[in-house]
Amino acid sequence: MTGDLIQLNHIALYVTNLERSIRFYEDILHMQAFGPVHLGSISTSGQLIGKAVSGGHGLLKGIIGGISSRAVKDQYTDIALLSSTGSGYDILLIQERHPDSDNTKSVDGKTIFGFSCTLSPSVDMEILGWDLHQAEANFEWGDPGLDGTVFTEDAQYHSLYVKDPEGRIIELKPDTENTKTGGFITSLDSIILHVTYPDISKKYYLEELHFRIDSDSGNKITGKRIISLTNQSGKRCVTLYGLTTPDGNPVQTGGYGLDHFALSGLEEKGEKNYPGLDLKMDPDTLQEKTNSSYIHDSDGYWIECCQYQE
Known about the structure:
By secondary structure, this protein is an alpha+beta fold. The protein has one domain (about 5-310): Roll (2,3-Dihydroxybiphenyl 1,2-Dioxygenase, domain 1), CATH 3.10.180. The chain is built from six helices and 19 strands. The chain has helices at about 20-25, 60-65, 70-75, 125-135, 200-210, 285; strands spanning about 5-15, 30-40, 75-85, 90-95, 110, 110-120, 140, 160-165, 170-175, 185-195, 210-215, 225-230, 235-245, 255, 260-265, 290, 295, 300-305, 310. Strands 7-8-9-6-10-13-12-11 form an eight-stranded mixed beta sheet, covered by helices on one side. A hairpin with a 7-residue loop joins strand 11 (about 210-215) and strand 12. The two termini are about 20 Å apart. InterPro entries: Glyas_Bleomycin-R_OHBP_Dase (IPR029068), Glyas_Fos-R_dOase_dom (IPR004360), VOC_core (IPR037523). Pfam families: Glyoxalase (PF00903).
């Protein structure tokens, strides 16, 4: 286990309206969308059958290989890939429809609360808020109970928080170290997960994935418990977010919102076959080799363990 190298690789999210979500990620987060594509048009070898894919299909053809045997379900599933660099993907969007009515399923439940991205040093944080307002972004300002970020005059750096069409919170973080260059987003940093029993989840991530505790709110915030976890080098990767009702009972997690999330730098463990969407990168196309396996945590969230080799 190389715990200092573990980092968030990508997130697979369910959405209610795929076209609407694509517009959000293109217009607000300046990501490049590949798709949408209907999974029923893809063969088991990953080739597109009789249908062009809008927005360019090279990346899709490169990463989709050997989708698991879900022929019936695939007929009612559409996906799109979102990339901050144009090679590889950061977010997988999934839209499913009901077989009987053909109506799109609505996202519900408590799975992923949100995630954070680091912006390029070229992004001027002073005018970003106005630009996002002009693009009709929905804002969610810093919650001191969530991550300690508040807007004060004496703070040198501030994050901006926007909501995606499903109400998930996305933190846009300034690059305070100027370590990366690129377009708008340089990296996908961390994911915030709803958990039912924070202490059980914390134990799992510490013992099984060898994360470290960056902060733990304990009982300081009424009705909330927030535990921030980092890799061995101190980079935040996962935040556990537990809620309780006024009478002290835990709010149960679960629902239709998160398919899985992927962590790179993990040793191969768990299962090779995953019951959800199983997308592989093609080493001939993206110049990378992958050997993913899957585990699920104490709340039942599936984690893809990615291994990249030269």
